[in-house]
Design brief:
By secondary structure, the chain is an alpha/beta fold. It has 12 helices and 19 strands. Bound molecules: pyridoxal-5'-phosphate.
Length: 433
């Protein structure tokens, strides 16, 4: 299908809506495969590992596709790692990078998984102290995530590298951490940073230099360096995606220079989530109502899915492409086709939650920003593009007791297959006593 909706494929969304109801997420397998191949082709000096950051979307069918393409897994919690393993992915392909400090049964599970080959990325002094003896006894090499002190992200809440966020072992703790590790006889065979989500390529490049400096100064045993995720994807027509070729060539050159200086050949890792998954997903909703708030207000379009299925606009004012598709499957309006955008109508899209922030048309400050589109009829489909990453995975789907919605895969063979059922009301209440 490709990452855009156009006249030829718009009918697919009516088909999905008829077969599975709305709202529904539709994922395009062909685009996902293409994105995997794209990242795996990143230029590199002495080898490349691509870890898919499964927090972006953890559906098991999608994980399996990504796995089959040859990507490894970045898990952000023990449960994510378990989930990847439950999907059939070998523990050896998973690295856990987490803020958690597992205890009790979780700790036992962590140990079992590490003995099975899962990699552990130490993210704090406390985590290091807690895992040291186990790693030493079992001769397990570790990875360390370093807090670089500089970060970049599409918004303040997506910057994970500056001193307003606390991911990784802070540079100020590094010497203490390494002295402790030396005392215990531990090995770090990988070094990792992640500066944020969707930031500027320039800062991503600068991080490469900084991180290679850390590797040279502090990590004599490391054979792998991870530059993290955060590769910018273009969801909207005016956005520019990270240039994988250009970033890879830069990294390749710097890793080669590192080799010339030190005689050490480093394997490079990256761990994109957004870049792999964002444009594979579409959220299909139905227009259920329209209201106007008068001359000084707006024309509101009410779709039957909003913040509980795509909370990104409310969280940080993210923009997604909008499409209007008629009930008969005709594409009426697309952000990618100026000729379909009305010069007259500016609409605000809201959902059905009892929350004034339940809108898909917000800026970073939470203000409503009307968007140009052809005014739909009630019953038409309102489709939100760029919703493969951090939508299904991150949205508060039971808010207002809405049930988690189904997920459908458009297979490479153009079949629509249900890959997650709609949640039932009984499932929402089943743990309540
Ligand atoms: C440690 C780590 N790696 C990778 C990613 C993926 O980032 P993105 O989806 O921007 O590629 C994240 C996202 O927050 C992260 O925290």
């Amino acid at each position: 299908m490709g990452k855009l909706i156009h006249a030829k494929n718009a009918g697919l969304f009516t088909r999905a809506a008829k077969e599975f109801g709305t709202p529904v997420y539709v994922y395009d397998e062909a685009t996902l495969i293409e994105k995997c191949r794209d990242v795996l082709a990143m230029p590199n000096a002495f080898g490349l590992h691509v870890r898919y950051a499964m927090k972006a979307n953890s559906n098991r069918t999608l994980l399996r596709i990504v796995d089959r393409q040859g990507l490894l897994i970045d898990a952000s919690s023990l449960n994510e790692a378990r989930r990847a393993h439950l999907a059939g992915i070998s523990l050896k392909k998973i690295m856990l990078t987490t803020q958690e400090v597992p205890e009790g049964e979780d700790r036992a599970e962590l140990e079992r998984m590490m003995l099975g080959g899962m990699k552990y990325n130490v993210c704090s002094l406390r985590q290091l102290r807690e895992i040291a003896e186990f790693a030493k006894e079992n001769d397990i090499g570790l990875s360390m995530r370093i807090h670089p002190g500089v970060g970049a992200g599409e918004s303040a809440t997506r910057n994970t590298g500056d001193d307003y966020s606390c991911f990784g072992v802070h540079r100020n703790d590094l010497e203490e951490a390494l002295a402790f590790a030396r005392g215990m006889g531990l090995r770090f065979n990988a070094v990792h940073t992640h500066i944020g989500s969707g930031g500027k390529p320039k800062i991503w490049r600068e991080n490469i230099d900084r991180e290679l400096g850390f590797v040279k100064q502090y990590f004599p045993d490391a054979d792998t360096v991870s530059f993290g995720g955060g590769l910018k994807e273009a969801r909207m027509p005016d956005e520019i995606a990270a240039d994988i070729e250009e970033l890879g060539l830069y990294a390749k050159q710097r890793v080669e220079e590192f080799f010339e200086e030190t005689g050490r050949k480093l394997v490079m890792e990256i761990e994109p989530g957004t870049y792999v998954m964002a444009n594979c997903g579409f959220l299909v909703t139905k227009v259920v109502d329209k209201k106007s708030t008068g001359e000084n207000g707006f024309l509101f379009l009410i779709a039957n899915g909003g913040m509980e299925v795509n909370t990104r606009p409310l969280l940080y004012g993210s923009r997604h492409p909008f499409y209007v598709v008629s009930q008969e499957g005709k594409l009426l309006s697309s952000d990618f086709d100026e000729s379909t955008l009305s010069n007259r109508d500016e609409l605000v899209v809201v959902g059905i939650c009892c929350e004034s922030g339940d809108s898909q048309s917000l800026d970073e400050a939470g203000q409503i920003v009307p968007r140009r589109m052809r005014e739909p009829e009630i019953g038409d489909l309102f489709v939100i593009g760029g919703t493969g990453a951090y939508c299904s995975a991150m949205s508060p789907f039971n808010y207002n007791s809405h049930t988690q919605i189904p997920e459908v895969l458009l297979t490479a063979g153009q079949e629509l297959k249900l890959i997650r059922r709609r949640q039932t009301l009984e499932q929402i209440v089943e743990n309540e006593i």
